[in-house]
Amino acid sequence: MAKHEHVRVAVIGSGFGGLGAAVRLRREGITDFVVLERADSVGGTWRDNSYPGCACDVPSHLYSFSFAPNPDWPRTFSGQQHIRAYLEHVTDTFGIRPHLRLNHEVTKMAWNGDELRWEIETSGGSFSADVVVSATGPLSDPKIPDIPGLADFPGKVFHSARWDHDYDLTGKRVAMIGTGASAIQIVPSIQPKVGRLTLLQRTPPWVMPRVDRAISGPERWLHRQLPFTATARRGILWGIRELQVSAFTKRPNELGLVERLAKANIARSIKDPALRARLTPSYRLGCKRILLSNAYYPALAQPNVDVVASGLKEVRGNVVVAADGTETEVDAIIFGTGFHVTDMPIAPRVIGADGRSLAEHWKDGMEALRGATAAGFPNWMTIIGPNTGLGNSSMILMIESQLNYMADYLRQLDVLGGRAALAARPSAVGAWNRRVQSRMERTVWKAGGCESWYLDANGRNTTLWPGTTAEFRRQTRAVDLSEYEVLRAPAKPQAQDVGATGGRDASSASASVREKEAVQ
């Protein structure tokens, strides 16, 4: 029998969100916590995504923690291996290793209203925690569409986030499904070695040049010797992106100039008018994530590449069939089809106060108060929750804002004293969500004329934040107790002398009722 462990805080996941939470807990003086990680190492999406060409599309000095600057980033846009190494470095520098429970996949967590704690079952043992911080991330579980005939395909099939490094693509006929951020990095990386590459494209992306370069030795030396120079560099990168936000959220028509630049980027590499037409989007730039690459279009122009302007419909033996009827024989199928974002895989495993799962609560769409707490789930919060994503800047900025909120949440529990829990009021969650969705209507993500993974099955954008990162930082600076209900543990029955009570059951004589304090 695996032993049971009780902790004050259980953090789920060890990507940027989970490690950031762990560091913040230690900086707050909290050491009674564990980080439950299903894999055998830290890193989250930067551990799982190791496909050829994998790199970040946010500048390195902005895509790192403000409390853990890295003066030695090798490039302005760093690759997967450098970001993963950075996360390992953070783990060691801030003493997180003793708190890690690797190979501990959470299979179920349920709220115990009598004890005011979470009961957690994992593949490596059981735990209980006063507070749960879920940092599983939206880009954690690959999404492969249900394609007729795929199960009978005789060749190799894998998702970009589960790359098979043992399979040699040299000389193979390969079908690349999807044209998202992963695909535009994979295509130019594998094009020179494959025999033939067929890209099945449902919707072309807007792709801008990637202004990437090696960071020189003198620059890195300067950042090491004078740390304020790296801070200033980060500040400039942040400020530029903050100034762009209004075009995405209030005035999408201002993006027309950028569209012309993007079309010029296509024209530079794609000389065939028919191919250029297939690669030119018909929706407003920014409606889907703007992608960055200098190599994508040149790769598509090579003689061993075919672009099919239609999605994958079915597979017949070793033939992939597009929705427009195009048939292509292939040896391997690579899916770059994204992740379960609006249907978080952790949601069915989280059981709230009413016995229903988070997935049931969110069946009509995800919503959380300030992107962190959900009604019906006391002392549970999520990092990178609903409507906290960004379309043009670094998610690390949003994560750090949510860590501020987490820290104040725990401070409020300390102030309350005793065995207490905070439960987000449904009215507060609803009011917050209505404000966010109202603002979303005029954004480019809703009005830009496209379908994207930002939208859920009901067409609502439950993923992105319709404002600046500075505004979100203000909104999550502190917990507003009027938005919460305080739960107190029921009083324990007192032992009684059977003779004095005439044999009456002591527990029935003092039935416990959960105390709910309305904090105004």
TrEMBL record:
Q: Which Gene3D superfamilies match?
A: FAD/NAD(P)-binding domain
Keywords, sorted A to Z: Monooxygenase, Oxidoreductase
* Protein name, UniProt field: Flavin-containing monooxygenase
Taxonomic lineage of the native organism: Bacteria, Bacillati, Actinomycetota, Actinomycetes, Kitasatosporales
Q: Which domain of life is it from?
A: Bacteria
InterPro entries recorded for this chain?
FAD-bind_Monooxygenase_sf, FAD/NAD-bd_sf
For the region Disordered, what residue ranges are annotated?
A: 490-520
Pfam families referenced in this protein's UniProt entry, alphabetically: Pyr_redox_3
